[in-house]
Amino acid sequence: xxxxxxxxxxxxxxxxxxxxxxxxxxxxxxxxxxxxxxxxxxxxxxxxxxxxxxxxxxxxxxxxxxxxxxxxxxxxxxxxxxxxxxxxxxxxxxxxxxxxxxxxxxxxxxxxxxxxxxxxxxxxxxxxxxxxxxxxxxxxxxxxxxxxxxxxxxxxxxxxxxxxxxxxxxxxxxxxxxxxxxxxxxxxxxxxxxxxxxxxxxxxxxxxxxxxxxxxxxxxxxxxxxxxxxxxxxxxxxxxxxxxxxxxxxxxxxxxxxxxxx
Length: 262
Fold this sequence. Notes:
The protein starts with 5 loop residues before the first strand and ends with a helix. An 8-stranded mixed sheet has the order 2-3-4-5-1-6-8-7, with helices on both faces. The longest helix has 54 residues. It is an alpha+beta fold. The chain folds into 2 domains: 104 residues, TATA-Binding Protein; 140 residues. The chain is 56% helix and 15% strand. It is elongated and about 65 Å long.
């Protein structure tokens, strides 16, 4: 990227973040908080934003500053471990209309609200990357179960393991629904045409809506498969219960017959 481009760096810590603890740690640096995020200043032209769904975004900060903040927050053991779930994006101020490239967006005006909107979009994009990986891992496991069912005609995994798997899938899907407001524009854009256009441009660039729908579709496939597995187990348990009842009846009949014979 050219030197004139200010860089946004986003990291996903792969777990929820306690914003109250972060606020207490950062204290005087905090500019604004909500139930979903925390926005803080790190000096002139340097900002950070923490989202409770596990994403931290920095603007205009060196790696040294970023590492220091992560150490203070104590939300990860090693910053280097975050490299897989990280992403960069740039903002450049230039005359003329909006222009977006793969790595950066050029805007006629850059202010704090623009930076916050860019942080939101990049943060949601990275969260979708993480949840897509999780959903694909779950789907891979599902394919393994289905392959075993096709070749062996039965599942070796127990009902308790299936239920734990169901719980993991549902919890992940719920976290996505609760935390990612992909289809809702930030309130600050409602009465500001410029900010609305910036938000819409970035949302389209990161393909947030399409990626969200893709992940949602994956979870529907997972849920359908798990429902089928549970139906098989319920049928199996019902069959066992029927045989137990039949055996008990036979035992009762035999006992009655033997009693009469004696």
